[in-house]
Amino acid sequence: MKVDPSSQATTLAIINPVLRLNGSSEVRLGYSGLSFFCDVPQREANETVHFTLYRNETNTVGEHISRGNEEATFAHLVRNTSEGMYTCKATFQSTNKTGLSQGIFLTVLVPVEDVTVESDPPSAKVWEGERLTLTCNAAKGNRLRYEWHFKTKTATMKLVTSGRSMTIHRVLENQAGNYSCVADNNLTAGYSQDIEVEVKVPVSIPRIWYSVHKQVKNYSARITCEAERGSPPVTFTLLRNTRKIMNNTRDFLNITFVLPITLDQNMGIFTCQAENGKKPVHSDTQMVYVARVRGVSLESRPHPLEVSVNEEMVFTCSVEEGTFPVYKWMFNGHHLQANPDSYSLNQQGNILTIPSATLVHNGTYVCSVCDAFDKTHCIKSAALQAEVKEVVPVSIEAVAVAFCCFLFLVIVLSVCCVVAFKYRTGEYNPNSGVGMEKSAIWDKDMDEQLRDCSMDNSDLESVTKM
Prior knowledge:
The protein is α+β, with helices and mostly antiparallel strands. 16% of the residues lie in helices and 47% in strands.
C-alpha cells in the first residue's frame, strides 16, 4: 500500500481515518468477538469511501465500502498470525484521494499450559559449593513473565529473580528445599509442581580421641571419631599404622571403636577416615599409649610457705608419668571442700590457688592423683606445711608519736655534739673568763685521763713480755 505524500499532506486534517477496537489490544488466541472500526470524521454525507484494513502495512485483512456516514466494521477471528500493527486506509471515490490512520498493535496471547521446572543437574541433587540451574518451561504460552518460589519446612518465600532460568553458582546447605515457578502473560498463569533440591554436604575432617575403661582386670580403649558436618550416611574407617582395621556406615556423624589394650605399652598410631560420597578425609594421627600415674610431687609459691594474711598461695601438683590423671586435694587430712570464694582450680585441676590467705588456711596440703580409668590406683604427694601470720596493724597516732620522739632525740644529740665540740676547741663563749677556765679544767682532766691510759698500756706490755 503506497500513499501519495503530497496528496496526503493537503487533505490530512480532513480525510485521515480513525481506527479503533471494540476491546483490549491484548486478546486470547481463538477469540472471535474482536472487531476493528474505521471511519472518517466530518466527511460529506453523500461521500463514498473505500476502507482497507492492513496488518503490518502489507497484509490486507479486509475491505469495506461505506456510503454516507456509515462506519466500516471488520470482524476478526484471532489466529496465531493475527499479531501485528493494524492500520486503516481510506480512499475517497470522488477525488481518489487517500488517508491513513494511526496504527494499533494487536497482541495475541496464548493461554499458559503445562508449566514444569527443569533442573541441571537433572536429579536436582548437588553437593554444597556446586552449581545449580533451574529452568521454568511452559508447553504453551507467549509473552511470559516468570516468578520463582522457594519452600522449606517452615516457610515459603518469593525469590527476587524473575527470569526463566535461575542459577545458583555455589549452592549452600540452607538452599535445599522445594522450588516452583509461575508463568504468567496477563491472560492466564501456569503453576509448576514443586521440584525438591537436595544439597549434600561433604563430610568435614573428623576429630579423633580416646578414653580408657576397665573391665574387671582388662582394659580397653574407646577411640571416637567425630565430624562436625556432612550429609549421612557416613562411612567411618579406623586405621592403625595406616592399615584399615574397622569400619562402620551410619546416619550419625560420630562413632566409637573399642579395642583391647595393655597398659604402659604403645598400641600404635591411629587415624580416622570419613567418607560420604566425595573424596575421603582423614583426621590427625593419635598415638594410643596408656601409662599409669607415677611420681607425684607438690610445689608451692612462695617457698617456703610463710605468708601474711591476704597474700596469695599457689600449689602445683605434677606427675612424672600418667596419661589420664585425676587430681584431688587434701587439707589437714581431709578432702578440700568446695568453696569457690576461698580458692580456685585450673581446668586440669592440678593448680590450686588461694588468692587471699587467712588464718583458717594454716595447715598441711597434699595432692592425690588417680588414674581416670582406675580410681583404685592413687598416689599422694608429700605434704606441704603452710603458715599464715597475722600482721598487727599500727595506728597513725602511734607512728606520729614515735616519729616525734625520734626527732626530739636527734635534736638533743645534735645540741650535745655542738656544745662538746666547742668545749673541746675552747671556742665556747670566748668573751667570758668562765669559759676559758672551764676549757682549761677540761683540758687538764683530759691530759690526766690520757696519762692514765698510757700507764695502763705500759702495764699491759710488761705483762705481755712476762
